[in-house]
């Protein structure tokens, strides 16, 4: 099968699909740094930079179209500034849709932040699925969390899969008789603490390297030690770690090493293992000649779930989608509910497994960042664990003594591992 990729970023969709045996024929990405990464790994793929300048003649024939259209205008991180699909960046969905409507590929896969579900009181998400449904697609969506697909990062994203004139998208995103509703989920299935206890305790620290005053805005500085990181994002949400009693090799550096392009691009990327899982299921369903057009929405749902979900079928115009993380819409009818955020056999790892112990000196927190982290925790009455606070204070008191350097930013290769990329995927010589 062949795929064309829009809003390609550093190629998360592309790499995931390639691992599923799908060939990438076309890429479109405007960011100059991301363009360099794409051309490093796909030297012969047709490339365009601006989707607004792409015509249907530029795009090779392909069964699959994919893209993670910009999330900034629908993200909860921009509360108070959420313009939704009327925003300049997230509104590029319309440019994508006009091209897709002309080409009508067999499959369309989109990805975005969960904030899309409630942006503009749910109307933005309703617009996305209604536009695709109106031109003949069965549209299925599901929030999936990367931590269940082999990477220790809590990264919830909504994946929207559309199949032309067929209910096959539901067959891909939901596993027949295996997908569970959240009300049937047992806590033991999602509890990582037992696995994490076998490894050295690792603190993942949120927004630690952003030099903020204690009362400067909503970004909380938290920490977790359950084997996972916070969601990586372009601003460094889960950016620092501390491993208790870990022996580190601290590399002396000359001058400042700027990893900002790599960190930012990786924070915006899609988690590769999820796309690979979806790609493998598309290939499998496609080989089965897809589900026939005659199947009703009720037949789809009862085939997927053991529960009796017929009562959840409603007319599309009357559905309140905000309270659900999953659903299917086909021919104007819709089912939606909340399902578990992983495949039937989740792969669970912990952050300690991906960390390096050789760290450039300039990646350790400076005095301003340490002060900000400690003060913010005190202001919010979030007392830091004694060992973490002790490590921060010693690092503050002995900034030039290597043996006291313990709390530091994550390396780009660690970001790459958390997103499912090979080491140094984003390393561009000379930058």
Total helix count? 12
- Strand runs, count: 16
For the terminal residues, how far apart are their CA atoms?
35 Å
Order of helices and strands: EHEHEEHEHEEHHEEEEHHHEEEEHHEH
What does this structure look like?
There is one protein chain. By secondary structure, this protein is of the alpha/beta class. The chain has 12 helices and 16 strands. The chain has helices at residues 12-19, 32-41, 92-103, 123-134, 168-173, 193-196, 260-267, 272-287, 297-304, 367-379, 386-397, 412-419, and strands at 2-6, 23-28, 46-48, 64-67, 107-112, 137-145, 156-164, 202-206, 223-224, 238-243, 249-251, 313-315, 326-330, 333-337, 358-360, 408-409. A 10-stranded mixed β-sheet has the order 3-2-1-4-5-7-6-13-14-12, sandwiched between helices. It has a 4-stranded antiparallel β-sheet with strand order 9-8-10-16, with no helix packed on it. A two-stranded parallel ribbon has the order 11-15. The longest helix is centred in the middle third of the chain and has 16 residues, at 272-287. The protein starts with a strand and ends in a 12-residue tail after the last helix.
């Amino acid at each position: 099968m062949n795929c064309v990729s829009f809003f390609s970023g550093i190629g998360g969709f592309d790499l995931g699909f390639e691992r599923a045996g799908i060939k990438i024929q076309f890429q479109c990405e405007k960011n100059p740094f991301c363009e360099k990464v794409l051309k490093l790994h796909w030297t012969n793929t047709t490339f365009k930079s601006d989707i607004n300048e792409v015509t249907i003649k530029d795009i090779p024939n392909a069964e699959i179209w994919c893209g993670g259209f910009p999330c900034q205008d629908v993200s909860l991180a921009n509360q108070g500034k959420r313009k939704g699909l009327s925003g300049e960046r997230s509104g590029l969905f319309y440019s994508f849709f006009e091209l897709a409507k002309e080409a009508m590929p067999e499959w369309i896969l989109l990805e975005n932040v969960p904030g899309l579900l409630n942006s503009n009181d749910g109307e933005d998400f309703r617009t996305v699925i209604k536009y695709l449904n109106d031109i003949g697609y069965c549209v299925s969506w599901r929030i999936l969390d990367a931590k269940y697909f082999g990477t220790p990062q809590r990264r919830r994203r909504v994946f929207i899969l559309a199949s032309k004139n067929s209910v096959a998208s539901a067959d891909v995103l939901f596993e027949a008789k295996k997908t569970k509703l959240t009300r049937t989920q047992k806590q033991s299935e999602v509890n990582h603490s037992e696995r994490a206890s076998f490894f050295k305790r690792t603190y993942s620290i949120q927004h630690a390297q952003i030099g903020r005053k204690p009362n400067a805005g909503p970004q909380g500085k938290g920490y977790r030690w359950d084997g996972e990181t916070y969601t990586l994002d372009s601003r460094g949400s889960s950016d620092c770690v501390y491993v208790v009693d870990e022996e580190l090799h601290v590399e002396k550096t000359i001058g400042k090493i700027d990893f900002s392009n790599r960190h930012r691009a990786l924070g915006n990327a899609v988690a590769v293992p999820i796309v690979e899982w979806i790609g493998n299921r598309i290939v499998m369903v496609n080989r089965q000649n897809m589900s026939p057009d005659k199947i009703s929405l009720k037949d789809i749902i009862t085939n997927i779930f053991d529960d009796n979900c017929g009562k959840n079928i409603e007319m599309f115009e009357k559905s309140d989608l905000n309270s659900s993380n999953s659903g299917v819409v086909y021919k104007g009818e819709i089912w939606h509910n909340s399902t578990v955020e992983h495949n039937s056999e989740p792969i669970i790892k912990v952050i300690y497994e991906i960390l390096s112990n050789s760290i450039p000196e300039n990646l350790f927190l400076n005095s301003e960042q340490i002060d900000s982290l400690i003060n913010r925790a005190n202001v919010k009455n979030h007392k830091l664990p004694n060992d973490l606070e002790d490590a921060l204070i010693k690092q503050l008191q002995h900034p030039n003594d290597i043996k006291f350097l313990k709390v530091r930013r994550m390396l780009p290769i660690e970001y790459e591992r958390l997103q499912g990329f090979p080491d140094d995927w984003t390393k561009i010589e000379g930058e």
